[in-house]
Design brief:
By secondary structure, the chain is an alpha+beta fold. It has 2 domains: 163 residues, FAD/NAD(P)-binding domain, CATH 3.50.50; 143 residues, D-Amino Acid Oxidase, subunit A, domain 2 (D-Amino Acid Oxidase, Chain A, domain 2), CATH 3.30.9. Helix content is 27%, strand content 24%. The chain is built from 8 helices and 22 strands. The strands form 5 sheets. It has an 8-stranded mixed beta sheet, with helices on both faces. Helix 1 packs parallel to helix 4, helix 1 packs parallel to helix 8 and helix 2 crosses helix 8. It is globular and about 65 Å long. It starts with 7 loop residues before the first strand and ends in an 18-residue tail after the last helix. One of its GO terms (molecular function) is oxidoreductase activity. This is FAD dependent oxidoreductase. It holds the Pfam family DAO.
């Protein structure tokens, strides 16, 4: 623990990491200002599939952190048992019927960790979770993870902002993009595009896919593997599907109001084209193909109609692992950058607030430190 007493903090970014950390710091009595270029959840958090899980294979520390993240959502769910924006109805996944199929290895790995997993043949799925077209499931079968769920991040973020405001926190959304101010070798606050400065004892950068470039302005390195993401939200549909589906050609997640969220890497790769002016064009034929793939895996093959499309960077560090905690080269400068923003949203806010307020490192974040990229 350091001798520095933190009384104020500035957070750049009003996605789930920024708002969650802001609420946790405000609970500790710290004066917090969150700066965002536009409304909350207008970045990656607003176009996230938001699947709450720790399935498949990853490092042991990452798995433990994700499980702690899911635990915090279960605590939240107990407070809001009837919420239509936070559900634990399980997740179902299967792979293509080719050499890339890893269902058997994934199942054995999940069982070895004590992660709740059930291996199912196509004709067994209907008895476990509703709403699937079993014909879409490949011969190696599927894995059902009953402990998984999903969250609607914009709704959660707005809920946290309400608490944040009641605790005296300030949200600024109308002054353009902000930057971290570094003076005398340490972070001393932030400055908005409008030229207003917000001094603080600590600064958290939580700007999703923009984190690596913003950190580079301070001469630091965060390796970046951010791709473009495409998330399609459907119009309301009466349908029995409740589990999150992760399939070879499409991921489908139930959403509030009888809507569904769909994404796929191939759709983003093929359907989003960059323009010379920095904007993006969306190929309507690719979006239609994504909707068709979603229909194929849903019982009755319903007609899915577009309500909205979200396009932008999907935050992924270069090595796939989260980047969390202090930039040791610049005292007072903290980072939150990870692909799994939804699953980690609440626990990361809690642990980063602990580190900022206490001036101490939390052991659960030991392997996720930013300096791992400069030490290679």
């Amino acid at each position: 623990m350091t001798d520095n007493i933190i009384t104020s903090a500035v957070i750049i970014g009003a996605g789930i990491f920024g708002v969650s950390t802001g609420a946790q710091l405000a609970r500790r009595g710290i004066r917090v200002t969150i700066l965002n270029d536009g409304p909350p959840a207008s970045g990656a958090s607003g176009r996230s599939l938001s699947w709450l899980n720790s399935s498949r294979m990853r490092s042991e520390p990452y798995h433990r952190l994700r499980m702690a993240g899911i635990d915090r959502y279960r605590t939240l769910s107990a407070r809001f048992p009837d919420a239509d924006w936070l559900r634990f109805d399980g997740g179902l996944t299967w792979d293509a019927d080719d050499a890339t199929n890893g269902i058997d290895a994934a199942y054995r790995h999940e069982v070895s960790l004590g992660y709740d997993a059930r291996r199912l043949a196509a004709d067994e799925v209907a008895a476990v979770t509703p709403g699937l077209d079993a014909r879409a499931i490949t011969p190696p079968g599927a894995i059902f993870n009953p402990g998984e769920g999903w969250v609607d991040l914009p709704i959660l973020i707005n809920l946290l902002i309400e608490e944040f405001a009641k605790l005296g926190g300030t949200l600024v959304t109308d002054q353009g993009a902000a930057r971290v101010v570094v003076e005398g070798g340490r972070a001393v606050g932030a400055e908005t595009g409008a030229g207003n400065r917000f001094p603080a004892d600590a600064v958290l950068l939580a700007t999703g896919p923009a984190v690596p470039k913003m950190v580079a302005q301070a001469g630091q390195i965060i390796e970046d593997a951010t791709p473009v993401a495409l998330l399609v939200q459907t119009k309301p549909l009466a349908h029995p599907l409740r589990a999150v589906l992760n399939t070879p050609r499409v991921a489908v997640r139930p959403a509030p109001g009888g809507t569904f969220s769909l994404d796929a890497d191939w759709a983003a790769d093929e359907g989003v084209k960059m323009r010379e002016d920095g904007g993006r064009d969306i190929d309507a034929a690719v979006v239609d193909a994504l909707l068709a793939e979603g229909s194929k895996v849903m019982e009755g093959n319903p007609k899915l109609e577009i309500a909205s499309i979200g396009v932008g960077g999907k935050p992924i560090p270069g090595d796939g692992e989260p980047v969390l905690g202090a930039l040791k080269a610049i005292p007072g400068y903290y980072l939150a950058f990870s692909h799994s923003g939804a699953t980690l949203g609440l626990i990361v806010g809690e642990l980063l607030a602990y580190e900022v307020a206490m001036g101490a490192e939390h052991p659960m974040l030991a392997t996720f430190r930013p300096e791992r990229f400069t030490s290679r």
